[in-house]
Amino acid sequence: MAQRVFIDGEAGTTGLQIRERLARRRDIELVSIDPAKRKDADERKRLLNGVDAVILCLPDDAAREAVALIENDRVKVIDASTAHRVADGWTYGFAEMAKDQRAKIAASARISNPGCYPTGFIGLVRPLVEAGVIPRDWPLSVNAVSGYSGGGKAMIAEFEDENSEAYTRAPYRIYAMAQKHKHVPEMQKYAGLARAPIFQPSVGRYYKGMIVETPLPLSALPKAPRLADVRAALEAAYAGERFVGVASAQACAEMKTLGPEGLNDTNRMTLFVFGHDDEARLVALLDNLGKGASGAAVQNLNIALGLEESAGLA
Predict the structure, then answer these.
(1) Distance (Å, rounded) from C-alpha 11 to C-alpha 13?
(2) CATH assignment of 116-288?
(3) Active site residues
(4) pTM for this structure?
(5) How far apart, in whole angstroms, are the C-alpha atoms of residue 285 and residue 198?
(6) Domain 3-114+293-304 has CATH 3.40.440.10
(7) Residue 167 in contact with residue 161, Cβ under 8 Å?
(8) Residues 159-188: tens digit of each pLDDT
(9) Domain range list for the chain
(10) Over the stretch 53-84, which tens digit does the pLDDT of each residue have?
């Protein structure tokens, strides 16, 4: 029997991608609200409480309101907003983050989908903190660039409007210079850090794809780890994983450049360890709409409902 799923906010960028991934599956029955009733609170409440799982693709406040409407404790909720990523009672939906994370997701009725930038940063840093390569109080920075789809409908419209400055003049731009980006709390919490990293995001004039980087002064770290130690810790953390992998030392040594679009339309993330024994340049490559959003949401849905984890993610 197919599991019934309601995507609240299915008309948004992430919602549309999730719907596309689920639409042809026989083990999922998608439930949609009548467009004429989208502002009908009673109809939304009925749908939110009448399915097996809900995926929220809403602004933060709207996501909180939707959760408050759910009274059926059997409904699994996956929230793609920022609203609940560090909230008590919610399980962080990065299945590869720890060996027991899948079990926690499967047992939870409240799952927060990770942010795209944090997925890359946590994927790189958490295993190194757990292995003692990076001290928990070490000052870290994270530099990243995303395709403009990461900014949602407003930014997409801006970059695709032929009359806009973004379309005509901005191949690349930085943002969030006040250093108060909403992704930082989850980066710090789930990477296991005692202090927040310095986050330096940017957006390029291309649709999707993401690179997340963290530099490490290896010779300055307390244990002075070698580049091979960094790679070994990452390889041990993701051994056997289907969607997160570590590029080989040979592959990294042979690479002359790396673009952000290499894993577009996949749910995969590849981690790279560049550099030498004095300093490392850690890089994560992923699709900000794939493993950074809709792909992760579908993966979490599969785990939460006891379905094949890779279904809809080929």
Answers:
(1) 7
(2) 3.30.360.10
(3) 116
(4) 0.94
(5) 19
(6) no
(7) yes
(8) 777 776 655 566 888 888 888 888 999 999
(9) 3-114+293-304, 116-288
(10) 999 999 999 999 999 999 999 999 999 999 99
